């Protein structure tokens, strides 16, 4: 009898594809999925909400988890809502439109909190309330959409998740309305002029992507045509029609990407018409933006984000600041008036040119910018005697490179502010820093992208 109980207790449960299981959804996954457990096996269910009981069909089985498709809801969450977007289920751009926005904010804060619990093993996480949006729609300032020829029509939209199946998107609810308008009208012009559209399989055709970015403060729009060829015969006609129908467009650029690649942008830009850069304002600062330069996609929340960075920095005017992954210089220039010196670096040369020009037009003479990787430049600078008082890092989703972490551990920067868009890599990097002599002081989560699973945060660490 005892042996039988022990065998049952230790028996391993095996899931199989196609199996239907009933799950209690416990929490939100990093990509917006509902997370449940079947006999202690983690199961991710797209479209399920924490607090619900669902029936789901197993679709994929990995070593440490399984994925499942939502079949039906047995107990519905009080926070479930009807998505406003007609292609929400197929587009893949948003993941949380089926949840009340107040609940989205709560769950995203918990994502950050749980990541730190998992990777740092701290008993207490010094996390602040979520900084959210009063209007969680029409906040994005940039869209880059692929084109596809379907019969006589030119289709435009987004690729469905993990596929190259185009979902047509005519009026995205999280994009600024003028961005939608510029892209839609340009698509119609391309169709009318019968300009060939890129076909990935054959590596033929001209127009690959349309990219539009609006400056919220000035309402200037930059239109970028990403093309396989370096030119096309209908250029002048297209420019004439775009500028006549879309007076808000102040810059039209051709970006040449001749390669068979999933990367959107190529290395070379050619100005077709108007200004090379559009002008954006953020707080008291003015920024010039070139096509490939990084600039935060939600200007309203960006100003709040940078204010949190400024508060945590507690500058006195005597500090030397390193602005790693600086983009067009936004964070460093936001802090510059209260600092002695700002040094920034980025891997995109155009971004560094923009950062230098942005410092100049804002009258900031004590900020310098360099092209290169933070993982290489910062260790070199410190080895040559630089002693920064504050380092601000705003890395891509992959987090900090190990050489940069090693330098931060070796030198012990008095104050380190880590701006992150990925709670997992943030917490993993912080774990190394905490093990190596830093103390976690504050985490401020911020909802930069409502309706999606993405969450931004600002974290302060201090050398012990």
UniProtKB/TrEMBL annotation:
- The annotated active site, in chain numbering, is 421 (nucleophile), 421
Occurrences of domain TRAM (ranges): 14-72
Keyword Iron recorded: yes
**Alphabetical list of Gene3D superfamilies matching this protein:** 2.40.50.1070, Nucleic acid-binding proteins, Vaccinia Virus protein VP39
Identify the residues that bind S-adenosyl-L-methionine. Answer: 296, 325, 346, 394
Kindly give the CDD domains that the UniProt entry links to this protein.
AdoMet_MTases
Q: Name one GO molecular function term.
A: rRNA (uridine-C5-)-methyltransferase activity
Biological process according to GO: rRNA base methylation
Keyword check for Transferase, yes or no: yes
Q: Which UniProt keywords are present, listed alphabetically?
A: 4Fe-4S, Iron, Iron-sulfur, Metal-binding, Methyltransferase, S-adenosyl-L-methionine, Transferase
Question: What is the name of this protein?
Answer: tRNA (Uracil-5-)-methyltransferase/23S rRNA (Uracil1939-C5)-methyltransferase
What is the originating organism of this protein?
Answer: Thermoflavimicrobium dichotomicum
């Amino acid at each position: 009898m005892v042996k039988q109980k022990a065998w049952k207790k230790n028996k391993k449960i095996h899931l199989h594809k196609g199996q239907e299981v009933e799950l209690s959804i416990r929490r939100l996954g990093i990509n917006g999925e509902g997370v449940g457990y079947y006999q202690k096996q983690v199961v991710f269910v797209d479209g399920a909400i924490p607090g619900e009981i669902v029936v789901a069909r197993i679709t994929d089985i990995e070593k440490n988890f399984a994925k499942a498709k939502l079949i039906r809801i047995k107990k519905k969450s009080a926070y479930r809502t009807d998505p406003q977007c007609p292609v929400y289920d197929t587009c893949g751009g948003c993941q949380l439109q089926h949840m009340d926005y107040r609940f989205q904010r709560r769950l995203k804060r918990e994502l950050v909190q749980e990541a730190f619990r998992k990777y740092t093993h701290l008993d207490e996480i010094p996390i602040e309330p979520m900084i959210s949006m009063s209007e969680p729609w029409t906040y994005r300032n940039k869209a880059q959409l692929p084109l596809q020829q379907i019969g006589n029509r030119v289709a435009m939209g987004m690729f469905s998740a993990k596929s190259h199946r185009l979902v047509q998107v005519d009026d995205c609810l999280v994009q600024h309305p003028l961005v939608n308008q510029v892209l839609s009208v340009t698509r119609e012009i391309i169709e009318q002029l019968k300009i060939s559209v890129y076909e990935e399989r054959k590596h033929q055709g001209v127009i690959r992507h349309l990219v539009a970015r609006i400056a919220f403060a000035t309402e200037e729009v930059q239109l970028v045509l990403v093309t396989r060829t370096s030119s096309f015969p209908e250029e002048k006609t297209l420019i004439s029609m775009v500028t006549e129908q879309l007076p808000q467009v102040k810059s039209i650029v051709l970006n040449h990407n001749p390669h068979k690649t999933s990367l959107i942008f190529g290395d070379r830009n050619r100005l077709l018409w108007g200004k090379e850069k559009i002008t954006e304002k953020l707080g008291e600062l003015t920024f010039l933006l070139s096509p490939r330069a990084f600039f935060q996609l939600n200007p309203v929340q960006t100003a709040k984000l940078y204010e949190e960075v400024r508060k945590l920095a507690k500058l006195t005017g005597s500090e030397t600041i390193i602005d790693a992954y600086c983009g067009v210089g936004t964070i460093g220039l936001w802090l510059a008036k209260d600092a002695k010196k700002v040094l920034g670096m980025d891997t995109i040369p155009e971004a560094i040119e923009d950062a230098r020009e942005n410092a100049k037009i804002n009258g900031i003479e004590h900020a310098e910018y360099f092209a290169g990787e933070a993982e290489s430049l910062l260790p070199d600078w410190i080895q040559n005697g630089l002693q920064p008082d504050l380092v601000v890092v705003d890395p891509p989703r992959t987090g900090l490179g190990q050489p940069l972490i090693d330098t931060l551990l070796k030198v012990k920067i008095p104050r380190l502010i880590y701006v992150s868009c990925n709670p997992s890599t943030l917490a993993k990097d912080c774990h190394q820093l905490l093990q190596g002599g830093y103390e976690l002081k504050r985490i401020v989560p911020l909802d930069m992208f409502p309706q999606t699973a993405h969450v931004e945060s600002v974290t302060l660490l201090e050398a012990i």
